[in-house]
Amino acid sequence: MCTHTIANPEVTKCFQVGAASRSLHSNYFWCRLQTYIDQMANIVASAYCVVLAVLVMCARGHSGQEGRKFYKRIGSNVTLQCETSDGHSSVIWRFNGHAIDHNEDQPFHGTNLTLRNLDSIHSGTYSCHEKHNGRLKNQITIHVGNPPVTPTVLCRSNAYPDTFYCTWQLSSPTYIPTEFDISVRHGEKSIETIKDPNHKNRCNIKFLEMFSTNKYIVTVTAKNALGSNSSTMSFNENSIVKPDPPEIIEVNTIPDSPSKLEVKWRNPLTWPEPDSIPLKYFLRYKPVILDDWQHVEVTDVPYHTITDAYKGKEHIIQVAAKDSEVGTWSEWSKAVHATPWTATAPKHDSDENIDNVSEPLTGTTPSTGANKRKNSSIRVESSMTLFLGMIMILFI
Q1: Which of 119, 126, 252, 370 has a CA 20 to 30 Å removed from the CA of 269?
Q2: Contact of 203 with 166, CB cutoff 8 Å
Q3: CB atoms within 10 A of CB 38
Q4: Which helix (H) or strand (E) holds 167?
């Protein structure tokens, strides 16, 4: 409770001191000033108490229950109470602003509403109103969900020996806000974790030392309003080393070599020290039309020449990488397609040229029918010449 005092005993004392003083008028002035200051302070305190009381009344609402929030487990039941001045008054319940009808899953008991076998679809705001005037009597927000199950944790180093990262996830959703706490220890030392800005459930951790015999211990705790669960894993640093895939940057054909392809790639950009911590590679390739892959391991250099490619067939090519001594292979790189060198086919003569060539051949090699017609024509001409000659002899 806020209280204040109007009377000020210091004022009386001030007047007494002023009466005994040689400067009565001066003391009287200062006493009056002190009295005025005290009165103003009392007025300010009173105003503060009034404003505070109004704010508290507004925050409580009509029934003192407005704006409550509850978290409920999926499958449970809950009864929402609507407190009215008259327990027999008719009320209306609303869900997210829409009136609720009476049914088996949402029965009314007087002015109360019971929700059975809750599911995530029941999450929302429920409000109770007096039926005759619509006045709000109660408002409750319900969040329906589950406590978290045991989180699954995975740790990996794609930037050995600088850093590693850990990720976590839940095998089933909670449907309500869930937070995660991560702690990492190396032997007896606690290690700082750095939240990854690009991934929601991921943090980055620096290696404390190389080739350590102490294990790293990572604990992830998931918690929400309905409960919590945690998972712990331990490992040696060399067991989590796994580079990101390399990138194939070039595939070249080799002239006059129909069974060869020259492949070049580059180290993953996340690998910090390729010179001091070298990688080895695993290349695979196959024709598109076949299912079986051909494999070859490459050491030290980021290139390889395939010598047994299928002639004239399109091939799929991928490459993976691994630390030369510890860890596991990366995932395969993005697939690249290429076809070996193929000899250029000879060009065919056009139809026009074929016609030009065939015409002389036709003229120089006539058919049998054409020869017969020519011979008949010669015989007719000879007969006519002989007939005309005989007529001329008779007239002579």
Answers
A1: 252
A2: yes
A3: 16
A4: strand 163-169
Report the SS3 class of residue 207.
coil
Identify which of 106, 122, 130 has the alpha carbon closest to the alpha carbon of residue 70: 122
Token pair of 117 as six digits: 């076998």
Strand order in the sheet with 189-191: 189-191, 179-186, 216-224, 227-235
pLDDT tens digits for the chain (396 residues)? Answer: 444 444 444 444 444 444 444 444 455 555 565 666 666 666 655 555 444 443 333 333 333 334 589 999 999 999 998 876 665 678 899 999 999 877 656 667 778 899 999 999 999 999 999 888 888 989 999 999 999 999 999 999 999 999 999 999 999 999 999 999 999 999 889 999 999 998 989 999 999 888 888 999 999 999 999 999 999 999 999 999 999 999 999 999 999 999 999 999 999 999 998 888 999 999 999 999 999 999 999 998 999 999 999 999 999 999 999 999 999 999 999 999 999 999 875 555 544 443 433 333 333 334 434 444 444 444 445 555 555 656 655 555
Do 61 and 127 contact (CB within 8 A), yes or no? no
Residues 6 or more apart from 157 whose CB is under 8 A from it? Answer: 163, 164, 165, 207, 237, 240, 241, 242, 327
Strands of the 112-115 sheet, one edge to the other: 78-80, 112-115, 108-109
Q: What torsion do the CA atoms of 166, 169, 174, 175 make, to the nearest 10 degrees?
A: 90
In this structure, are strands 179-186 and 189-191 parallel, antiparallel, or unpaired? antiparallel
Rounded-to-integer distance, Cα 74 and Cα 116, Å:
10
Structure tokens at 161: 């020996």
Strand pairing class (124-130; 136-145)? antiparallel
Tell me how crowded residue 75 is: count the other CB atoms within 10 A of its CB.
11
Residue 356 backbone phi and psi in degrees, to 5: -65, -40
